[in-house]
Amino acid sequence: MKAFFGRAVSKALTATGLSKQELAYKVLPHFLLEIFTKYLRVTIEGQENLPKRGACIFIANHSGFMGFDALMIGHQVFLHSQRVPRIIAHKLWFLRPEISVHAKKLGMIPATLQNGLKILKKKQGLILFPEGEEGNFKPTKYRYRLRRFRRGFMRLALQTGATIIPVAVIGAEETNITLSQIRWAKELIGIIIPVPLNMIPLPVRWHIKFMTPILIEKNLEKADDMEYITKFTRKIRMQIQKELHAQLKNRKHIFL
């Protein structure tokens, strides 16, 4: 059965001329992503800011421990620009082969500088969450408070000249509730373990805003300037935090 399924997928790829990632984004919406989009009643703002071509990095706030925000952002980018972005994903997605095989089909790649450079040098899109697991696994009581941004995305942008598109996501914080986290697990197994309240996503209304793109010129010298990178990273973090506050101020209902 497995061999038959593999041959069927290969035939589908050959017939459509699609890559595995493109096939995933064209097939899965009908079964999963579109279902979640309707279930979460996702609304979009700023789709005109999506680049039609060239290397770009989508930088977003991260939350909800299940990673639905990455899938929803990727799905909307595909719907509105017909581009297939790759997702820099947490190491949890690659701990076991039976999980990593599905992660790769969804366009996820391990979070390394080399992987990011490889994608951007091909003039493709990359979805990246600078907060990392500190944002994704933070207790929900700290919702919409951005954690410190890691600076790797700025190095990637400066080394490749990739455009940065800040993204603000409202709704993911309440979709999957995190009660607390087991921080000492970081020293034992290398990752923080979240303590969730619910595994089934709550029907929270989502809103995703693609903010004004930030054009970055390729500059290898500045890519090694930690002071410059830190300053620019903080500026982008403040922009997203300000947008989150504005969106929350105008938010009328969470579930309705």
In short:
By secondary structure, this protein is an alpha/beta fold.
Outline the structure in words.
By secondary structure, the protein is an alpha/beta fold. The chain has one domain: Glycerol-3-phosphate (1)-acyltransferase (3-Layer(aba) Sandwich), CATH 3.40.1130. 45% of the residues lie in helices and 16% in strands. The strands form two sheets. Strands 1-9-6-2-5-3-4 form a seven-stranded mixed β-sheet, sandwiched between helices. Helix 4 links the parallel strand 3 and strand 4. Helix 2 packs across helix 3 and helix 5 runs parallel beside helix 7. It is globular, with a radius of gyration of 18 Å. The chain starts with a helix and ends in a 6-residue tail after the last helix. The N terminus is likely disordered.
